[in-house]
Amino acid sequence: MLTHLIVPLDTTATSFCYYANEGYAAGEPEFIPLDVLSQVVEYARAQDLSLNLLYGRTLPPAQHQSLIDAVAHVKIMPLAVQGVSDASVLVMNPDDDAATVAQFGAAAPNLILRVQKERLPGLSGLVEKLASQCQRMNVILLGVDQYTDADFNCYEGQLRALCEALAQQMRQGHALELSCLTDRLTLRGMHNCDAGLSHLTVSPEGRFYVCPGFYYSSADDSVGALDTGVAIGNRELLRLDHAPICCRCDAFHCKRCLFLNKLLTLEVNMPSHQQCVISHVEREASRQLLESLRDLPSFRELARIPRLDYLDPLEKVLPKPSSGATQRGDEELSDRELLWRIYDLQIEILARLRST
CA-to-CA distance for 45 and 19, rounded, in angstroms? Predict the structure, then answer.
């Protein structure tokens, strides 16, 4: 059921997830037309929806703010915004200095930390520096399409260091929520992004998109408009029960990002190898954190997280054949071998396309 709309307020609106807005670093912003914003507000009122507003580096004009104040909303602002005072969520982008956070104090209890692949080795140190400035931190890894086994191993090491720091803090009575480690501890089922199901994005042109990522990657991916309504073809493909791998998975905290799915596998309901491995590296770190805190009363009642012998669920759903079997020449392949060849070839083709 639709609960809220995501609205970029201007051309420099910050990203809060895996996608990029190339206009974020631009100079003067172009704000959403006042008449479109008015339609968004009226649509939200009529459908009993709230708004998640994406700000750029400059606050909108007073007329825009007056319309915004007339409906329930959440402000998502970059640290670099001018005149921030009441952000609901702050976003630390790759070009932000960690020291900048201090000037905001506890202005926003929620912080989204967007981390470039190149800065992955310093993740644990950065999180520890920022921990005192917020109550919850969402870690978003950027450039996951370029992640290799070395990056997965590096991330695993960073999470191990964070587990030790978090466990120590929790024993002292502090309880920072860290999306990649603490979310999985209490979840009993999938708690994904649900783009297209619980929320839609409205562009400054008044068109609907499954999420901002689809808007910024291709304006042609619209799924309706304010004046004509929502029209999502094959909407069932957005649902968990139509994702054959995800519905059997227990990395319940995974965002199951449809934008990344489409970008990396060309199918919205098929997760990429990278997204699955990252989520399972996090799941294992959460399991270790939970076991290390079992002696505390507040953790004793939490359900155990079983140990797994895989990182990519596709290996469980469709066990990979031996290397010898996949290197045969003209011999007839089994269905399992053929599917794995298609999967491996698709990853290789996409990697080559992105490098050209």
Answer: 28
- Output the six-digit token pair for 356: 């050209």
Q: Tokens 């959460």 — which residue?
A: 286
Sheet with 177-178, strands from edge to edge, namely: 177-178, 136-141, 110-115, 89-92, 73-78, 50-54, 4-8, 199-202, 208-209
Residues 13 and 155 in one domain: yes
- 83 is written with which tokens? 């005149």
Q: Which of 131, 160, 186 is the last residue of a domain?
A: 186
Query: Which amino acid, residue 316?
Result: K
Q: What percent of the chain has pLDDT over 70?
A: 84
- Among 157, 186, 215, identify where a domain stops: 186
Residue 127 inside a domain? The answer is yes
**Domain contains 339:** yes
Q: Which amino acid, one-letter code, is at 141?
A: L
Q: Classify residue 179: in a domain, yes or no.
A: yes
pLDDT for residue 166: 93
Question: Is 109 part of a structural domain of the chain?
Answer: yes
Is the confidence at residue 61, as pLDDT, over 80? yes
* E strand spans, 83-221: 89-92, 110-115, 136-141, 177-178, 199-202, 208-209
Counted domains in the chain:
2
Q: Report the DSSP beta bridge partners of residue 177.
A: 136
CATH of the domain at 29: 3.80.30
Structure tokens at 222: 């619209």
Mean per-residue pLDDT, 156-165: 96
Place of tokens 């191990």: 160
Beta bridge mates, 140 = 114
Give me the pLDDT at residue 133, please: 79
Residue with tokens 């982008």: 93
Domain that residue 169 falls in:
4-186
